[in-house]
TrEMBL record:
This is TetR/AcrR family transcriptional regulator. Keywords: DNA-binding. InterPro entries: Homeodomain-like_sf (IPR009057), HTH_TetR (IPR001647), Tet_transcr_reg_TetR-rel_C_sf (IPR036271), TetR_C_31 (IPR041583). Transmembrane segments: none annotated. Coiled coil: none annotated. Residues 3-63 form the HTH tetR-type domain. It comes from Kitasatospora arboriphila.
Length: 185
């Protein structure tokens, strides 16, 4: 039961952060969002640092699951168009619905991690099936410096997500396709 409660609180903290920003992330706000009695969050996570660590750990878990699912949808990418389609799908997921909320929280945590080495360590990009699919595609197409180009391409996609989050503009699929294809070239 404690694990389920911890997950519920981490998910509620993620929602608070997405809606209210870092300043709004308090134990009481998480209690309210989780619809639990006042003091519940602080009973599980005594300090704000502990709460943030739980939130970031949960966020990374959700991101890794999303990337694994994305890679399974495109098990063997053979063409540049297929790779672009997969990256566009991932980008759209990160800009709509729950994906948008997680993206907002992810960027707030990334800024916070500049001053918090423990959070930064949790947030460091990890190996995952999505990254591996991009790496395999680039290697299979004779791209030099596969690691560097994989990093550059995925950083461009992350930057695109960030840009669209802060600009608030709607993202048309054809525009995304053009931007992702340009980054791939």
């Amino acid at each position: 039961m404690a694990t389920d409660r911890r997950t519920l609180l981490a998910d509620a903290a993620l929602d608070v952060l997405a809606d209210e920003g870092m300043r709004g992330l308090t134990h009481r706000a998480v209690d309210r969002r989780a619809d639990l009695p006042t003091g519940t969050t602080s009973a599980y996570y005594r300090t704000r640092a502990a709460l943030l660590t739980a939130l970031v750990t949960r966020l990374v878990h959700l991101d890794q699951t999303e990337l694994q699912t994305a890679a399974e949808q495109f098990p063997s990418i053979r063409t540049a168009d297929e790779l672009v389609a997969g990256l566009v799908l991932l980008t759209r997921q990160r800009l709509t619905g729950q994906g948008r909320r997680r993206s907002l929280a992810r960027h707030a945590c990334a800024v916070e991690s500049v001053r918090d080495p423990e959070l930064r360590e949790i947030l460091v990009p990890r190996e995952n099936a999505g990254r591996e699919a991009v790496r395999l595609f680039l290697a299979g197409h004779g791209v030099e410096d596969v690691e560097g180009r994989t990093h550059t391409l995925l950083t461009c996609v992350d930057g695109l997500v960030f840009d669209r989050l802060v600009s608030g503009g709607e993202v048309r699929p054809e525009e995304l396709e053009g931007l992702v294809a340009a980054a791939l070239r």
